[in-house]
Amino acid sequence: MANVLITGSSSGIGLETSKVLKASGHKVFKTGRRELDEPDYFSIPLSCFEHAKMLYEKAIEAFGNIDVLINNAGEYYYSPIERVQDYDIERVMLLNLSIPYYLASLCVSQMKEKRFGRIINISSISASVGEANASLYAATKAGLYGMTKSLALELAQYNITVNCISPGWVETPILNDINEQDKAEILDVVPQRRFIQPIEISNLIKYLISDEAKGLTGQNINLCAGLSVGS
């Protein structure tokens, strides 16, 4: 069983994934902004490289090494481009792209030594199909896929796989801020006319970190109820 570090795991996809992986026998180190009194959990905002390094060191202190890195933390940002401020660009780029890259750079050395590792980046369907007024968000998530492909090539010889999951609309607490009419309009353009459930993403992650998926690397999987192929 693997030692797993998953970011953004105090709610939503990250929390569900931690439950699924723990139930499968994996050891999971979680992190998020929320204060939770749980073992193997470190509350910290990933707002700078120093915080990311602190997180990595806490996980190493707890487990000794990291076999699986799941870059799940991110921020959705919606705004016309002319209204985006410089601090918005810096903040969203840092959390959605720079921090995942930095955490991967910290974890890879031990993975190479063990000749085993799994890196999974949670992107978004917005990176594949585009989304008006979400260009900053889409750009960062598309960057994750570029990172995924390049690292997959770089690390393949060490038995380290790197893959990307691009969810569509997922039924997480963020939907609580959307009224029923808007939800209905969203579902009108989703071919399966439903929201993705967090457990679907969690089960895909469980497969991707398994030995059965060792030949799958450098891929972007659109788990989006058909949204990537049209309405």
Counting helices, strands and paired strands, the structural category is alpha/beta
Coarse morphology: globular
Rg over CA atoms, rounded to whole Å, is: 17 Å
Number of DSSP helices?
A: 7
For the report, how would you describe the main beta sheet?
A: 7 strands, parallel
- What order do the SSEs take from the amino end to the carboxyl end, as H and E? EHEEHEHEHHEHHE
* Helix fraction by DSSP (H/I, runs of at least 4): 40-55%
Distance between the termini: 40 Å
DSSP summary, beta strand count: 7
Estimated share of beta-strand residues: 15-25%
Mean pLDDT, all residues: 95
Give the strand line-up of the largest sheet.
3-2-1-4-5-6-7
* Assembly classification: single chain
Short structural description:
With about 230 residues, this protein is α/β, with parallel strands linked by helices. The protein has helices at about 10-25, 50-65, 85-115, 125-130, 135-155, 180-190, 200-210; strands at about 5, 25-30, 40-45, 70, 115-120, 160-165, 220-225. It has seven helices and seven strands.
Task: List the SSEs and their pairings.
Elements: E1 3-6, H1 12-23, E2 27-32, E3 41-43, H2 49-63, E4 68-71, H3 86-114, E5 117-122, H4 126-129, H5 135-155, E6 160-167, H6 180-188, H7 198-208, E7 220-223
Parallel strand pairs: 1-2, 1-4, 2-3, 4-5, 5-6, 6-7
Helix pairs in contact: 1-7, 2-3, 3-5
Describe this structure in words.
The structure is a single chain. By secondary structure, the chain is of the alpha/beta class. It contains seven helices and seven strands, in the order βαββαβαβααβααβ. The protein has helices spanning 12-23, 49-63, 86-114, 126-129, 135-155, 180-188, 198-208, and strands spanning 3-6, 27-32, 41-43, 68-71, 117-122, 160-167, 220-223. Strands 3-2-1-4-5-6-7 form a seven-stranded parallel beta sheet, with helices on both faces. α3 (86-114) links the parallel β4 and β5. α1 crosses α7 (198-208) and α2 packs parallel to α3. The mean pLDDT is 95.
